[in-house]
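Researcher: I'd like a structural prediction for the single chain below. Treat it as a standalone chain; there are no partners to consider.
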Amino acid sequence: MKQEELIQYYHDVGEPLLLRNSGIWKGFSSGSVTPTLEGFLRAYSLVSSRAFLVDAYHGLSMVPIADALVFFRVSVSDNFLERCAFCRFNHVHENHVHLESDFNVCPECGSLTECAHDRDGVLADLVNNNASENDSFYEMVSNIPIPPHSEVFNTYGDNLTNAQLLTRYGFTLDANENDNLTWTIDEVSQICKQLGELLRIINDDFTVNQLQEIFCQSQLIYNTPPGLFLGINGDGRVSDKLWILLGLLSSDRGTSAGPTALLRRLIDLQLLVESQTQFSDDSDSENNQSIPLGADPALLDMLLKMAYSIVSLCGARKRNGGVPASEYQNLGDVLDALPPAQSRTRTAVAVVMSERSILDSCEAAWIDVLTAVRRRVG
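Model: Treating it as a single chain, here is the predicted structure.
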């Protein structure tokens, strides 16, 4: 939820609700007895970064010491000394452990066994309920063997980017394979202005499967799992679905060729352009003029429009990445000026620097394509 939405939610819902039920929380308050926006935002931050879905009764809940459950014991001489140590379970993709709980409990009382709510019209006293407080637990289960004296890693999600980890949990990974940038259909349509039946074509397995093998030969495209993923990865490569969408948007709607055949011809032309731009020197005019004279003008126009759309998307993303004109700021200077004590802010700037680097890499590669095609088109 965006900060503006949170503030509006506090004024519309949170504050009136707290004031109506002040008798409940005032007894637990050690400070101010008046709800504040600052306190609400802090509480929201704590819950959103630490709560998880426990079961059908508790729902999204904060579980005590769920991220700090490491104990060790040591013995000293003849006396046994028990010592406990707590550490936060850090996040990695190849995690050692994960949390488990029985989700399918009674949504009315939380019972894991039979309860009065399981039968209509039966009094609670007539139900043999053996439930106890022992049902109220969760388990931390190991996925792989854990070597002695090693740090134990948990996971907060399989596909979280550094930006998501930072905003949700307050940290980032040095190397995160999930670092990618995505666009929504609305954001793409603002650049391209038309969608039509393109979503159906993008989600057509036949079209995607026909193209994915040849996509592997491109340095500018990467294949993604099933699903509509419109974005670029950490290497600045465009996702296959975004490429297909932009290719179709760039085509002449009156063409007689089917979409798969047309896109196949387009990627063939793009691979030819890539081979001539990837390792060429700008001063080498012979290499830069080597797109065949017989290249289909319609395909050249499609590739030109596609490259322009990708460059435009990257530029728009950088412009929307902060305050107006922040895309021109030297973030390295901004980072150097921040004191070490502002670790969270420094990490946020580092994430923006990483995202900008990805966008710059993608933008530069497609500007090379634009330049090569423009030379040929004249």
